[in-house]
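Dock fe (ii) ion; give full complex structure.
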Amino acid sequence: MDITKFAIPEIIFGRGSMNHAGQCALRLGAKKVFLVSDAGIEHAGWVQRLMDILEKEGIRWIYYPGVTSNPRDFQVEQGAEFYRKNGADVIIAIGGGSALDTAKGIAIIASNGGKIRDYEGANRVHRPLPPMVLITTTAGSGSDISQFCIITDVERGVKMSIITRTLVPNISIVDPLILRTKSKTLIIQSAVDALAHAIESYVSTIASPFTEMHSLKAIDLIIRYLPHAVATQSLDSLEQLSIASVSASMAFSNASLGVEHAIAHSLGGHFDMAHGVIHPILLTGVMRYNIDSAREKLGDIGRVIINKDLGSAEKNALAGIEKLEQFFSSLDVSLRLRDEISEDKKHFLKPICKLAVNDACNLTNPRPASWQELLKICEEVW
Ligand SMILES: [Fe+2]
């Protein structure tokens, strides 16, 4: 086996774990915390709750509310300026992938300078980042666990993947109680993102035994618990989705992803689409594309999805893909690209695929892909 590494943050998991945020900040030496969140989380009352928790520990804070979905390069750069001016020493972010990625982008610029696009790709951040505590409010993006940060380059209209071990936060707090304020749509979008992370990381060319076990665990939990979580929003099933998301995140953070995410980043960057909308459309198409290069592994995934063994990797893989298509059909989601993109914008797929081929996620796909092949996948799911 090749030499491998496995980096994860300290993870504080469980109902009510958010109450530990103040002590976490103190352990990291916080005197003045830089708080990052967005209007939705504020509205749900979680930002005030976090401020109260910090105040109880005697920690001062400054709040940066400038987060939108699909965070932009200039927002991160403005945030870094705000961080520097206010003399903060620890970053705490609470939110979904957008808030957490904004915080990570701010951390990069605040400590390394320059523009966020200078750090696009793998291992381009050289100086240490401020200590970070990330509190996720979704069960999917994995930004609270991962060494990934996704920021939109407005000029090029593309989501940049910034990947470096220093982006792994010091502490991740995963409190399933927070998920109770989420809509069914967001629960689905987050879970299918985690599912895509689990599947792509499992077949990744740099998967290891330390990531593979987490990938398979996540797939199993999402298939079993998502329908129940959507129907009932019961805390027990939401907690299982949180466990699935942590597992998928530990896997993809260390094994990276594949062409499904490469295309998703470029599509999302161009059309400002919610990330979670794209996976039910693309994922099974990409699995079919990969089948000749990852038959055994897609067979393992199929066995978990159908919960039985049909006797050959090929049969398990195909049955798993079919079952997954039925699974997505049973959710209230778009299943074709044309459901999200109008016919008159279809011609943008070509430049989108030309950008996607350069996404860092493309490097670890089991079957190499040219932009023409990515376009073919998009046309097949149109
Ligand atoms: Fe994702």
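Observed: The mean pLDDT is 95.
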